[in-house]
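Here is this case:
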Amino acid sequence: MPLPGERTLGYIERARAKVRARRAAGLCVDCGIPAWRGSLCEPHWRRSMASMRARRIQLEKRGLCIRCGENRPNGEAKQCEECLKLMCLKAWARLDRRGRKRRIRSDRGARHATSAFAPAADHGSSARTANRK
């Protein structure tokens, strides 16, 4: 039997399942009303942004990285070298070989239906190849 105030594994599993269900239904993960941005309603989103802003300000005043809060940034930077490298790697991962942003597969069908990649009316060729001479 757990001690008073101690959370059991069953409680944690139920809480995670509730968050997953709310997120899948497009509801705020905190209160269950329709989500405004991402997975939060407007009041909870604003509270979250204010909290993150206050944390960044405190970390900057203490001279720590505003992302990880552990390392000291170099010079005028607000982020440490490790966080800057991580951001750079994530940005490169979003690019294709030619340096363009990668397409997100989830909306590929809708995006291609109205883009230059949509099939042209004549002979089923794409709009790109139809314009070539």
Summary: Residues 42-61 form the longest helix (20 residues).
